[in-house]
Input
Amino acid sequence: MLCAAFAAGAINSIAGGGTLITFPVLIWLGLDPKVANGTSTVALWPGLFGGLFGYRHELANSSPILIRLGLTSIVGGAVGAWLLIWTPSPVFAYLVPFLILFATVLFMFQGVINKRLRLGSLEGKPTRLWWTGAIVFQFFSSMYGGYFGAGNGILMLAAMGLLGLNELHRANGIKNFLGICINSIAVVSFAFAGLVVWQDALVMACGALAGGYFGASMAMRIGQTWVRRGVVVIGLIIFVAMIWKLRQ
Output
């Protein structure tokens, strides 16, 4: 559990998708799927703080987007957590791998799409239309994050790229902050619903915290080109893994 959480924390810090490591491990250890998801969410939550600390210098002058999209993420995360607690999820489970594939492809071609659609940029003074699009997309992304969240980091990175935020390290820092907002409300919801095995979650949280900081530090050293390639590879691996799981 500790090793899985460390790897997941590092992956979440760089791109997203660490849930696809911890969730199967907890299922393999005999937990109910809903309990495994709740425990995994709680366990990986501290890792986002480690990643945020690693990108702290990249977040200068980002207060407006952190505040507005952070509040949006809390609301959306609460809705997603409520959906997980109260509704069955077989149909959504079949949609998840294709959503991840869509996000990965979007991330790959975000520069071309941004130029063609003239979506504008976060740099300078964003327009009201830019903020509306960013808030609407983040609301639905955070709903998904509160519900399950595997690949949600890739989805958020793709969205920020489309909206003109092309500094990947800064985008990663913002993504980690928004992930904290989403998972904070999900953690509280799952705890009250009894969907957390606390002794497992606390052990894994230690690994996730160390992995989150390690992932951010590694990303800063190896540069944006390799990080972009890593995001795409992680997204495709998650897609294949989830399709394989559905076919079983």
